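Name: N-acylglucosamine 2-epimerase
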Amino acid sequence: MNRSGETVFEQRDFLEDHIQATFAFYDPRVFSKAGGFYGCFFDDGTCFDPDSRQLVGSARYVVNYATAYRLYGDPKHLGWAKWGLDFLNTAHKQPNGHYAWLLEGGIITDTRVMAYGHAFVLLAAAACHRIGIATALQTLNDTFDFMETYFWDESAGAYSDERDDTLSQLSPYRGQNANMHMCEALLAAWEATRDARFLDRAERLADRFAFDLAAQSEGQIWEHYDRDWKVDMAFNIDFPNDRYKPWGFQPGHQFEWSKLLLILNGERPHKKWVLKAQDLYSKAMETGWDDEFGGIVYGVAPNGEYCADEKYFWVQAEAFATAWRLYKTTDDKEYLRDYRRIWQWSWDHLVDHTHGAWFRVRNRDGSPIDNKKSPLGKTDYHTMGACWDVLSV
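Structure predicted for N-acylglucosamine 2-epimerase:
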């Protein structure tokens, strides 16, 4: 806080304290002696589904604890990162090389093979390699090679999305989300290994999605495409609130791409990355910021109207991280003002000041929707990661 008692969201002590407060919610209750980590918590921390393990959640816990060990050095977190990586490679990984999307009681109950999930395995392996876990480099290389064999489309310059568990059938659906998180994971792999093939591929994805494909949708990045990578405006048109494949422009994903372009600019500087990052961010704030209630909505229709007006935790987190990077890149104080107002709304409506961590989602006016703080996949990887990203720049 400053002298007047106001929270100063850009202060290092505030961010570090917030990270530790978030860990304080998860650490006492996530570790499972049966393998991996529990992933379903009510607001008060009670686990409502102890048997399910989703690939994205399993991998994100590994990222959280590997990063925590790298930055703070708690041996427990090193052990948990190893534990989580081993669970990925012994429980999720299947004989034909893919990682199962959903396990319930150790049994695969969703047989889809998802590029999106494998992107997070790559990210987890990169985080573990940075802290010296011996098996991580093999996992990193194997996962990249698997993606290369079963999902990479050289002619399209992008990754396909989904196969069946025999790996013989490829879905015609194409999407940006798996590619965005592959770009994130490839940048992490580059940082962990300094192997230029990872940076090269991340740069190619950034060019493809932020420029080539975005040209089909007036410069913003659309979520869904057909097998020929033409924008599919009809896909999931009745499901703008879908958790993984929502219809509409996603302000949160425009922010994430903007952040990735700025990270890429730090590795291979070019003014086009910064200009496009500013463009994506500005359009997302213009259409997504709720002037009436504050906060940033989940989905915006092509005509600019809200098609999903809920306020998700991860959208706000990615927005403030991107605002901060743009501020530090351009020294434009408008981004700093955005950073502060995004944080303030999140602090008032999404941060759980009683039990810790962030609520998953709120109604447009900031009121609760349910009491499930962390369903499968939510590990507060977005919120702690956003704080770490701010601290890193």
